Amino acid sequence: MHALIFDIDGTFADTERDGHRVAFNLAFREAGLDWRWDEVLYGELLRVAGGRERLLHWMRRILPDDLLDGAAREDVARQLHAAKTRHYVELVARGCVALRPGIARLVEEARTAGLRLAIATTTSRANVEALLAHTLGPQAVDWFAAIACGEDAPAKKPDPGVYACVLRALGLAAGQCLALEDSGPGLAAARAAGVPTVVTRNPYTHDHVFEGALAVVDALGDGAGAPCVGLDELRRWHAAARPDGAFLLH
Length: 250
Ligand code: XBP
Ligand code: MG
Fold this sequence. Notes:
The chain is α/β, with parallel strands linked by helices. The chain has helices at 16-30, 39-45, 51-62, 70-93, 103-112, 125-135, 161-170, 184-192, 231-239, and strands at residues 3-6, 116-120, 144-148, 177-181, 197-200, 215-217. It has 2 domains: 3-14 and 98-239, Rossmann fold; 16-93, DNA polymerase, domain 1, CATH 1.10.150.240.
């Protein structure tokens, strides 16, 4: 195991409920729209990966074709998504999004052990940079040998494109890395790229199917009596992976 590849949304931090969802609602309000995504609706919409794609899906659902044709819809979605990214970055800067328990410790352990760190995420680069800076510090972006975001891989997870990008940048084989993901589509993307994967579930993903994960846990960290997953555990799980990277332990 030479590198840890982190997903961001739902894995590194609980970004969705108090971050992305709120930012979407702020963008809607700013644009004079009466759309409001509550937590339950947002959980449903999360089945569509990618914020702009999620927005397009919603617009197709509520706006008839004769009101807004395809090109106009794309245009509105792009503008709303740009505003949403601006709001998200501001929310992160105000401290509204925290790292999940155990992440800062794991990053520190991996750095101390000389492992390489990478990020494979569907979200936009501005969001990742803001999150790293405002949680781990302004220098944290440099700790990551590769960061692949939505802009780098237009086909969103479960497409493996973003993992292929990261592996190329790291110059490592898939089996030399371990991915950390929180969702079914995230796991599918990592597995399709051949990367052995540990899943840390969250309330939005607890009912996803995690077949082929090395292990499935509810948290990596110390909060709320959850077991503490460290580098030793990850190494043990990684060593137990089958040649195809899969091996369900829990
Ligand atoms: C995360 C996403 C992202 C965020 C929103 O999926 O689907 O789209 O919800 O971010 P994953 P953007 O954790 O599997 O990478 O609006 O910047 O797309
Ligand atoms: Mg995720």
